[in-house]
Amino acid sequence: MRIGELAEQAGISTKAIRYYERIGILAPPARTTSGYRAYDQTELGRLGFVRAAQALGHNCATSSSSSPGGPRPSTPSSARPSASVTSSLDTPLASVPRGRVSAKDW
């Protein structure tokens, strides 16, 4: 999917997506032959996680090191989720129903 589709499904702006790429939360996307960014469902899930972490008061730097799949290559490999991030996410995530959840549910 292109950046506009990802932004719409995630409920954020294309500018925010480009920012998340710049700071390493999102990996640089593949490009189509015409140069458009091409994203998949993995990035949509990652954006849902970031939005949930932000709703709990965590900033982007905290979210990038503790998001599903671990830190992005631009983040030191020694980075691990802090205890405060882990504990603050456990309770809200426990209330999410099991099964498929889309980013719009966040």
Which terms summarize this structure?
mainly alpha; Multidrug-efflux Transporter Regulator, Chain: A, Domain 2; two-stranded antiparallel ribbon; elongated
Question: How would you explain this protein's 3D organization?
Answer:
The chain is mainly α and 106 residues long. It has a single domain (3-105), classed as Multidrug-efflux Transporter Regulator, Chain: A, Domain 2 (Orthogonal Bundle). The chain has helices at 3-10, 14-23, 41-55, 60-66, 83-94, and strands spanning 30-31, 37-38. A two-stranded antiparallel sheet has the order 1-2. The longest helix is centred in the middle third of the chain and has 15 residues, at 41-55. The radius of gyration is 14 Å and the shape is elongated.
List the topology elements.
Elements lengths: L2 H8 L3 H10 L6 E2 L5 E2 L2 H15 L4 H7 L16 H12 L12
Antiparallel strand pairs: 1-2
What's the short version?
With 106 residues, the protein is mainly alpha-helical. 49% of the residues lie in helices and 4% in strands.
How large is the count of helical segments?
A: 5
- Compressed to H and E, one letter per element, the order equals HHEEHHH
At the fold tier of CATH, the topology name is Multidrug-efflux Transporter Regulator, Chain: A, Domain 2
- What is the arithmetic mean of pLDDT? 74
Strand order of the largest sheet: 1-2
CATH architecture: Orthogonal Bundle
Structural class comes to mainly alpha
CATH top level?
A: Mainly Alpha
Number of domains: 1
Q: Number of DSSP strands?
A: 2
What helical percentage do the residues reach?
Answer: 40-55%
